[in-house]
């Protein structure tokens, strides 16, 4: 039986570079934010490039696409929970079909990165609250705490973090999947403007711009975004995997 792995994320969480590892592995069919197509069309104010006109646009059709893909191969999909949170919370059967991984990033860093691309982002799109809701739903239906990765651990200790993730998922660790030539994978083209750093990367590394306290200073109009989402980050961060000293 082929498997389906879901990487649940919020915007600017380093989830795309983690997705790149699964693209490089070559043993999964990788879908990049298929549930985002529920929220966007060509008239959307949210920055996008060439939307794939062949992608389904409603929850049931997207779910059917993933299930069909699973019949022919292992499936990995990375998604933002806020796009589909209500439908997903009501769909225990679909959640039970998957192995779940969650990635979180300190909200101030994520908000500043998000704001640099989409200055008019709504507060719910910061995404930590919806991510926590799905985390709780998976915990409820499985009786187990799902796997949580902190983005800073991924950036600072990529090999160790990926080894532990593969161990949890019962996957072979493939060290060659941790490096690549700069490129824009086909899956990213609709949202290319969001992924320039990932596109130009060759491996997972810390961002050299994120040093010192200055990088965490939020402008006044974003403080409310931070205060709303920080508690959900803190709740999930209790369950992140311990990194190697």
UniProtKB/TrEMBL annotation:
Cited Gene3D superfamilies: P-loop containing nucleotide triphosphate hydrolases
Domain of life of the source: Bacteria
InterPro entries named among the record's database cross-references: P-loop_NTPase (IPR027417), Pyrrolopyrazine_biosynth_F (IPR053226)
Protein name, UniProt field: Sulfotransferase family protein
UniProt organism field: Pseudomonas lutea
């Amino acid at each position: 039986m082929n498997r389906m792995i879901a990487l649940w994320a919020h915007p600017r969480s380093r989830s795309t570079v983690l997705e790149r590892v699964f693209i490089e592995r070559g043993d999964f069919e990788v879908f990049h934010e298929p549930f985002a197509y529920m929220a966007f069309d060509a008239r959307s104010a949210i920055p996008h490039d060439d939307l794939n006109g062949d992608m389904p646009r409603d929850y049931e059709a997207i779910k059917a696409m993933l299930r069909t893909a699973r019949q022919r191969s292992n499936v990995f999909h990375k998604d933002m929970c806020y796009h589909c949170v209500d439908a997903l919370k009501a769909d225990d059967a679909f959640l039970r079909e998957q192995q779940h991984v969650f990635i979180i990033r300190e909200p101030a860093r994520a908000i500043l990165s998000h704001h640099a691309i989409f200055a008019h982002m709504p507060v719910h799109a910061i995404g930590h609250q919806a991510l926590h809701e799905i985390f709780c739903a998976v915990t409820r239906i499985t009786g187990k705490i799902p796997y949580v990765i902190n983005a800073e651990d991924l950036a600072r200790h990529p090999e160790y973090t990926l080894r532990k993730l593969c161990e949890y998922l019962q996957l072979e660790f493939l060290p060659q999947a941790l490096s690549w030539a700069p490129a824009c994978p086909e899956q990213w083209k609709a949202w290319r403007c969001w992924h320039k750093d990932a596109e130009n990367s060759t491996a997972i590394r810390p961002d050299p711009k994120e040093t010192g306290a200055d990088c965490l200073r939020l402008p006044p109009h974003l403080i409310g975004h931070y205060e709303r989402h920080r508690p959900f980050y803190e709740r999930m961060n209790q369950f992140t995997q311990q990194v190697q000293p």
